[in-house]
Please model this.
Amino acid sequence: MEAADGIIVGIPVYYGSATPQIMALLDRAAYVSMRWGGSLRRKAGAAIAVARRAGANFTFAQLNYFFLYNEMIMQGSTSWNVAYGWGLEDVKKDEEGLQTVWNMASNMAWLLKKLHGR
Model:
């Protein structure tokens, strides 16, 4: 994470929230960053949550707290970076969700170029 210019965290929603594994990773990364003087500060960050029915917005917010807490730069999209479906084939049918994620990725690419003077 420290070597990256930007970080995108994508996660499936289980039981209405982020998985314990991803939260453990993010919590530990935040602690290490804080101990090393804010090594994630001013990096670009974005979250994507995929759910069958419920919990997507809550999980999206959970992931965004990591970026905010670490003083990272979050770019927007046309809506929340959330998609819905039971499995991959269902998610592929969520045209609005996929377009929103595409817009976020495009905005992140633009932001990274700006951050590096290109």
